[in-house]
Design brief:
The complex is a heterodimer. By secondary structure, chain A is an all-alpha fold. Chain A has one domain. Chain A contains 13 helices and no strands. A six-stranded mixed β-sheet of chain B has the order 6-7-8-3-9-10, with helices on both faces. By secondary structure, chain B is α/β, with parallel strands linked by helices. In chain B, α3 (about 90-100) crosses α4 (about 105-115) and α4 (about 105-115) packs across α5 (about 135-145). Chain B is elongated and about 70 Å long. Chain B has eleven helices and 14 strands. Classes of the chains: A mainly alpha, B alpha/beta. The structure holds adenosine-5'-diphosphate and magnesium ion.
């Protein structure tokens, strides 16, 4: 288990040397900040007419959408680049299990996203100070639990796909297509299929985050959904590394 | 320390190594000599636990490379052929990372130690990407040494270095090899001759010869050829030498030197020297003419017509 931490730490530290990490941080935090400003501005206009108090769920809503677009850039090179540079050979001949390597990569990227999540938490805190009697803490809590679970799952899938490819752009593309599928495309058959539509509905991130946790309800089923995706990603990654060895 | 039996590896339909058998003892530097594509890297990757063989068995530092891969990996230091390193990392941080992966206690002190061993202490704070090829090679060596491995596996450790660096790295390997098992691959004959106690010659996935550097020459020739030179010209010199028991193939050269052979293991040189001096000549030179490793190599791996 110590190996997971060693690998995670190197990966986390490495993000601060990487221009892509700064671009992603900016691309996520800047729009969320803009949305925050718009909410605050419009609510200050409306509140003089007795309008509703602002809620933080729009922030987490947009955070997850931005994560769908940009987190593939955070995970794309995690293992593909090790394979391309040949450094994978040293990791695979160090006394580290394949799973520990993949899990360590996952943890490093997850901690980076967690840092971004932590930064966005300042917005609801500011919001809470401006509205009476304060924002709905129950919704805030469940939506942040949701954001953390979504991040874990997306990073997990991203790491798994990164282990399959040697080219980081291929990894990016496939990861992004998968996320887009889980976000929007699975909802299409769910909409018009009379039978079996439930299966597609179950697969969708919408069902498990946007329509539930981001509105204040936490179900065990939703938690299981995201943890399963995380585990699936780590499993795919570990298997891909093992297959690499046998080739 | 290393024991390989029947080792075979197929990449798809292509057989990269075919039924290799060899071993290496502690304190021995064994050279793995062969042209590109011979299967050196493939063999080393199996021995380091990077990939499993298709068939056969390898025991390294007492553990099976397939069944107990993690135990093997704990005890082996490996310098891969291309010396893959994270160019965006600082030398010290990189070595600390590799040390942490191997759970070394007081890892920072150990990093300083290995940096000193490979002569890179002054580059500790520099980025790996800014180092010369020779320095990176030494970072790779430091990484391979950090956990005091029982077995060191070095894949073409001097490739791409300039001559000065080659000399340095070879010296380093010889020092390191005094108390552990080193298996190093090379496609340079003089390198094998220079560093190794024993050489395995591999071609097209098969070991074609295995012996100490000296024996290998002797075995190929079956006899050792010697050149002898005296002051002035020795008309009667050939006769004197021929008279010694065990001397064969005596031949007088244009410059007056005499070449002769004796069967390996039955060294006649002391007796020849005695007789030559007794006959009143001033002995200037008595030197073995052994085949160069280049010639041996051609002999062993070249066309069948040349094979004996
Ligand atoms: N990953 C691979 N996939 C397919 N063939 C390979 C692979 N690696 C090596 N080979 C082939 O196996 C043979 C042995 O290669 P290698 O072990 O790299 O030789 P060497 O290190 O002696 O140059 C070569 O014919 C090479 O083309
Ligand atoms: Mg090679």
């Amino acid at each position: 288990m110590k190996n997971i931490w060693t690998i995670a730490k190197r990966e986390f530290d490495n993000y601060f040397n990487s221009p892509i990490a700064y671009v992603v941080a900016f691309a996520i935090l800047f729009p969320v900040g803009i949305i925050f400003s718009i909410i605050m501005f419009s609510s200050s206009q409306q509140s003089s007419f007795g309008g509703p108090a602002p809620t933080p769920d729009a922030l987490t809503n947009w955070f997850v959408i931005l994560l769908i677009f940009f987190s593939p850039a955070v995970t794309m090179r995690l293992l593909s680049d090790e394979a391309r540079m040949g450094t994978l050979e040293l990791l695979l001949t160090a006394p580290v299990r394949d799973f520990e390597l993949v899990a360590g990569k996952w943890l490093g990227a997850f901690l980076f996203i967690l840092l971004l999540i932590l930064v966005t938490l300042t917005f609801p805190i500011i919001m809470d100070n401006f509205v009476e009697p304060g924002i709905d803490m129950k919704v805030l809590f469940s939506s942040y639990v949701g954001v953390i679970l979504v991040s874990a799952a997306l990073i997990g899938l991203g790491v798994g796909i990164s282990a399959i490819f040697t080219n980081q752009f291929a990894a990016f593309f496939v990861t992004f297509v998968l996320f887009f599928f889980l976000w929007i495309l699975v909802g299409v058959p769910a909409g018009f299929l009379e039978k079996g539509g439930e299966v597609f509905r179950y697969l969708s991130i919408n069902t498990h985050f946007f329509e539930t946790m981001n509105r204040g309800t936490i179900n065990i089923g939703d938690i299981v959904y995201f943890l399963s995706l995380t585990a699936l990603g780590l499993f795919v990654g570990t298997t891909a590394i093992e297959i690499r060895r046998w080739r | 320390m290393i024991k390989v039996s029947g080792l075979t590896k197929d990449y798809g339909a292509r057989r990269a190594i075919n039924n290799l058998n060899f071993d290496a003892q502690q304190g021995e530097i064994v050279g793995f000599l062969g042209p590109n594509g011979a299967g050196k890297t493939t063999t080393m990757r199996i021995l380091t636990g990077y990939m499993p063989p298709t068939d056969g068995e390898a025991i390294v530092a007492g553990y099976d490379v397939v069944e107990e891969s993690l135990e093997v990996r704990k005890r082996v230091g490996y310098l891969p052929e291309t010396v893959p390193l994270y160019t965006d990392m600082v030398v010290f941080d990189y070595l600390k990372f590799m040390g942490d992966l191997r759970s070394i206690p007081d890892v920072e002190d150990r990093v300083d130690e290995v940096l000193d061993m490979v002569g890179l202490s002054d580059r500790s704070d520099g980025y790996i990407g800014n180092l010369s090829k020779g320095m990176r090679q030494r970072v790779g060596l430091a990484q391979a040494l950090i956990h005091r491995p029982e077995v060191l596996i070095l894949d073409e450790p001097t490739i791409g270095l300039d001559p000065g660096q080659v000399v340095e790295v070879r010296k380093l390997i010889r020092d390191i090899g005094k108390d552990r098992t080193v298996l190093l691959s090379t496609h340079l004959l003089n390198e094998a001759q220079n560093i190794c106690d024993r050489v395995l010659i591999i071609n097209k996935g098969k070991i074609v010869a295995e012996d100490t550097t000296e024996n290998l020459q002797a075995r190929l020739i079956g006899a050792e050829r010697v050149i002898l030179r005296v002051r002035g010209d020795g008309d009667e010199l050939a006769k004197t030498i021929k008279a010694v028991k065990g001397v064969q193939g005596v031949e007088t050269k244009e410059d007056g030197a005499v070449e002769f052979e004796f069967t390996s293991g039955k060294d006649v040189r002391p007796e020849v020297a005695k007789q030559v001096i007794k006959a009143g000549y001033d002995l200037l030179e008595l030197r073995p003419l052994g085949m160069s490793l280049e010639e041996i190599f051609l002999e062993l791996t070249g066309s069948d017509s040349k094979k004996k």
